[in-house]
Amino acid sequence: MSRGAHGQEEGTPLPEVVVQQKTHSHSATKTKKHQTRPVAIQATATSPQSARQQSFSGQPPAATEVAGIGSKGLAIPLTTTRLSGEAIQSQLPGTSDTAQLLTKAPGISIFSSGGLSGLPAINGLNDDRVKILLNGMVVTSACTNHMNPPLSYIDPSQVAIADVIAGVTPVSNGGDSLGGTVVVESMPPHFANIGDGVRTSGSLSAFYRSNGDGVSTAAHAEAATQNVSLGYSGAWTKANDYARGDDGPIVRSTLYEAQNHALTFAAKNGGDLFTFQGVYAEIPYQGYVNQRMDMVQNEAWLFNARYLTHFDWGTLDVRAFYHTTEHRMDMLADKSGRMPMDVDGTDLGYSIKTEIPLTTADVLRMGNEFHRETLNDWWPPVAGMAPMMGPDTFIDINHGTRERLGTFVEWEHQWAPAWSTLIGFRNDMVWMDTGDVKGYSAMYAADAAAFNARGHQRTDANFDVTALARYEPTANETYEIGYARKTRSPNLYERYAWSTGDMAADMIGWYGDANGYVGNLDLKPEVANTVSFTTGWHDRQRRLWDVKVTPYYTYVEDYIDADYLKTQGGMSMGGMGMVMPSSEFVTLRFANHDAQLYGVNVSGSVELWDSHEFGLFGLSALVGYVNGENLDSGDTLYHMMPLNAQLTLNHQLGNWSNAVQLTLVNAKTEINDLRNEPTTPGYALVDLRSSYQWENVRFDFGISNLLDKLYYPPLGGVDWADYNADGRVGLISPVPGQGRSFNAGVTVAF
């Protein structure tokens, strides 16, 4: 791995599969040399700068790092970014949304969707089009508005590593997705050294954000022998509505609270490792400024197990998981009215992957995966609101199931010291079905009857291909070209949401646009054909400077967009005598269209000055641009991020680290007319971060949006909460971003 002057581990080939122990010193004045005892093939390679840029992260003294199948060579394309250590730790005081950690990777942008539930987009392809693996688990958003996406089930303080593969993704790392893959792993197990007996360790952290009075706490504790480890990680966070910039008022429906508790058991025997983790995650409430509904309860249990073992012929990595969620939506105090919506969802599955070194130049990877999703979505009646919301229960999804069986094979070959190639093939069979539905009353009968009269079972046979070639003519340059054919089948809501009524359709959609959506039983799977070319220049040790430029083009057959059904009119609220004016909103039906996306990602870092007296200064930069178009209608695709850049000046002197970050975003003028997407002006934000490590204590301080700039994130959606509070008249505005916030944190290790 390499680490540039920005202190971020980037997408260079990872080492062989390892289970490795390290002994770390916490002394601020005296640093001991790492004592490394390899348990498997070889020790993890570290960059020349890693020791001097490593900051305290609250990890126990002995850490076991686990690299699984596909952790080297072209299985890790040049478009991969690894976030770990300081790249994660430095962001903890400023956010409780794990998705926000990913913004340090090229090509990533975030849909704003609740304070804890951001939805990542890679090169303009978003949400379900991005493969997210959480400790090997495929976790589905069990919600009509995707309020509980996968990354909402892990607190940022519990993330040890996040790998972002942008664009062309090897078949071993993706399936049933288009845009790329995000792999998030929690803290690895720790074991005692030989002769230490039972070793205990842990850490406590507390963070505060002035804007919204956000408070977060985190704890980790572990007891381990040489071969057995038992660990606990917990986190709790709470925040009120935040204030917009320019000393403006609060932004309604942005409050939240969450807790997360994980218990991990691990055992190792030589080079073999077994881990089992159980997680309880609860979000008692979370406001959604850009949705008509809020989350009033989300309670989940997640279980995952992994067995990593080695044979003479290669490595075997087996995972299994189960997830169950009880999700409840209604309206918090910032929104008027009542409309309870209940969802119960489960995920279960396994993955079996193997890596076989056929020769010194050939590696074969094979695997089989299974994922089963079940979903029940029903809306209890509301007294006095018939016939619109009563007297019966509204059945939205009735025992919906989505099963996927995937198989892949991937061959990597080293043709010469400078040339290597990878080619992979993948098949995913997807089976979907659901039961009959019904509405609150007879006013929904026609839509329900039309849906129930048709067969609901659907089968998709999807095929993916990935081809990569890498050329390294000198120690200062690397070139990589890639092609991928990736396929994604519709989700349950895209196929099975059935009511065309304004109120019911408005409850469907994770776009933050306040429009209504209706499913389509005739949807075909999306097929994306992506070509990208990465050019990388760097110094010989990848230590002093590096630059990567990746232009890409994606053509998507049967892209799941939407067609216009009707403009919404005023809706009578049953016996309440109320009318909801909504003439600027539309009802849309999910539909297949051809589309194209193209853009470029640029990243780089340079060491500016290394002084024994004044410290190490470095500069890092990210630049991104994407354009998307519906080729049938000519309309711009929804939620395309305009030209943007992130510049960070880093400084490190001993145990003191500092950063000044400048974020530049161009005006968003290319908008999706179909959804009445708002334009947003360009803006510049300045953030400050500083940390100091004193023995076993780390102090963090930062200021977000230093100049208190009033701005509107281009992917923030529309401000339904303010629009609703102001009587739903006039034009709805985009969601304002967060104003100035003073952030502080402290972490104590023991």
User: Strand count, sense and closure of the main sheet?
Assistant: 22 strands, antiparallel, barrel
Radius of gyration: 25 Å
**Structure class:** mainly beta
What is the strand tally? 37
| Helical content (DSSP H or I, runs of 4+) | under 10%
The rough form would be described as: globular
Gap between N and C termini: 29 Å
Uncertain residue ranges: 1-65, 571-582
Strand content: over 45%
Mean pLDDT: 90
What's the tally of helices?
A: 6
Describe the structure.
This protein has six helices and 37 strands. The protein has 750 residues and is mainly beta. It is 4% helix and 52% strand. It is globular, with a radius of gyration of 25 Å. The strands form six sheets. It has a 22-stranded antiparallel beta barrel.
Search tags:
750 residues, mainly beta, 22-stranded antiparallel beta barrel, globular
What is the structure about, briefly put?
The chain is mainly beta. The protein has six helices and 37 strands. The strands form six sheets. It has a 22-stranded antiparallel β-barrel. It has a four-stranded mixed sheet with strand order 6-11-12-10.
SSE map:
Layout: E1 2-3, E2 9-10, E3 19-23, E4 35-38, H1 50-53, E5 62-66, E6 80-84, H2 86-89, E7 108-111, E8 119-122, E9 125-126, E10 130-134, E11 159-166, E12 180-186, E13 199-209, E14 214-224, E15 228-239, E16 256-269, E17 272-286, E18 294-311, E19 314-330, E20 341-357, E21 362-379, E22 394-416, E23 419-433, H3 445-452, E24 458-474, E25 477-488, H4 492-496, H5 502-506, E26 516-518, E27 526-538, E28 545-567, E29 571-572, E30 579-580, E31 586-611, E32 615-630, E33 644-653, E34 656-665, E35 683-694, E36 697-704, H6 720-725, E37 741-749
Parallel strand pairs: 10-12, 26-31
Antiparallel strand pairs: 1-2, 3-4, 3-5, 6-11, 7-8, 8-9, 11-12, 13-14, 13-37, 14-15, 15-16, 16-17, 17-18, 18-19, 19-20, 20-21, 21-22, 22-23, 23-24, 24-25, 25-27, 27-28, 28-31, 29-30, 31-32, 32-33, 33-34, 34-35, 35-36, 36-37
